[in-house]
Design goal:
The complex is a heterodimer. By secondary structure, chain A is α+β, with helices and mostly antiparallel strands. Chain A contains five helices and five strands; from the N terminus they run H-H-H-E-E-H-E-E-H-E. Chain B is α+β, with helices and mostly antiparallel strands. The model of chain B has no long low-confidence stretch (mean pLDDT 89). Classes of the chains: A alpha+beta, B alpha+beta. Chains A and B meet through helix 1, strand 1, strand 2, helix 4 and strand 3 of A and strand 1, strand 2, helix 4, strand 3 and strand 5 of B.
Chain lengths: 160, 155
Amino acid sequence: MDTPDYLDQAVNIDKLDEKILKLITKNARIPFLEVARECGVSGAAIHQRVQRLQNIGVVSGSEFIVTPQKLGYNTCAYMGIHLEKAKFHIQVVEALRAIPEVVECHFTTGQYAIFIKIQTKTNKHLKHIIDNYLQEIEGIARTETFMSLEMDFKRQVPIK
Amino acid sequence: MTLRNNLDEVDLKILNSITQNARIPFKDVAKEVGVSRAAVHQRVNRMIDLNVIIGSGYHINPNKVDFKTCSYIGIFLDKGGLFSEVVEKLKLIPEIVECHYTTGEYAIFIKVYAKDNEHLKKVLSSQIQKIPGIASTETFISLEESFKRTIPVNS
């Protein structure tokens, strides 16, 4: 029976999957043979497991992690968005998606309808994005910005 | 901005491709960018030395490993000076995946993944709010992560 996607169940992953995840979430380019040695199974088994984890959506991709400041992205801010009407939600999210500096977007409870994370090169750049892109989006009533002066840490969810 | 000048167009092109897929063979990156494989290796190593690249990892879909409640929490402190002590304590709570020192209403802003609302309540009331120095908290539950991605490298 198909389950609707809002009832997304946690999938079956065993101890070996967890061990593999722990290793590959720390270093995406770790040779699978090394993972295999550490887990005490064959390299082929690791390949199969990772493929399966990808197929069932536990793993959604991989990336090299960059230091935003080193690329000139010195301003990080969180922004709460108030909508004129709640029903504008979908079209506003689509418009936000078109702005590459918006790196994260959530539909939240509480004060704001939408909550985003935005990374820009300078404060002026942030102002430019707010003035010329965000405020132009139809349906956005107003925004509230929290600048992050320092990111103290950032990490993945704990795997048991 | 000065540090950025250490990177040239080729570096940015390489970054653009490896930040999308960390396991892409460097051979393919080389072809895409139009340099040799050895050059890609060299440049990636250099960017690691320069701390432009600080690591790599697979993305886990938190939903699938049973972390279904994502929330942002704004934290008010008793005194601004307590900041670093509180951050040290927050770091010990594995459910907190991100922590920022922010301007505006809140002193600290964190992102928390919990298994469900009950788990979130437990993390909040028996861990976060027990930290000395935290006056109060304000929680925004994310009902949906509409998207999440990395910064635009090529611009």
